[in-house]
Design goal:
single chain, 146 residues, Barwin-like endoglucanases, 7-stranded mixed sheet, 4 helices, globular
Length: 146
């Protein structure tokens, strides 16, 4: 009897389907390292080491804590926002802290960055938050623009 593939045997097809689903669910990266972005949440990435400080210095801005961020809207440069960041390694949220806004989106990137509420923090702030090497994390903005 010739083998006509797994479609000829419903049990083989079912085993293949279950194994495929399990492979997707159990794959690295599907472990809730990034929970669903909460309402009012932001996607947070980070600048290269030292770059955010150079931008701040160029703009004549300084924050003693070294906690710098970007905001898509250029009108917010020089203001502080309070943000809590998700640590994907520990799977915990940080206490909200103040970040000085030192940069904003280029006009060509504004609509995309507003769409995902993109904020970028300094490399040093990303190290403290524990998501360096993860690419991005989630943030919740709890206060803005003072």
């Amino acid at each position: 009897m010739a083998d006509r593939g797994f479609h000829a045997h419903p049990l083989r097809w079912l085993v293949w389907l279950v194994c495929s689903i399990l492979a997707v669910l159990l794959a690295p990266g599907n472990s809730q390292a990034h929970p669903v972005r909460p309402a009012g949440g932001a996607r947070v990435t980070y600048y290269s080491p030292g770059l955010m400080q150079r931008v701040a210095r160029y703009r004549g801005l300084y924050d003693q804590s070294g906690s710098y961020t970007t905001d898509p809207r250029c009108s917010r440069i020089g203001s502080h926002i309070r943000m809590s960041l998700y640590n994907p390694v520990r799977q915990t949220w940080s206490a909200a802290q103040s970040y000085l806004v030192v940069d904003c989106a280029q006009p060509r990137d504004l609509s995309r960055q507003l769409g995902v509420n993109l904020h970028e923090v300094s490399y040093e702030a990303a190290v403290r938050a524990g998501f360096v090497g993860e690419g991005s994390t989630l943030g919740v903005i709890v206060g803005c623009c003072n």
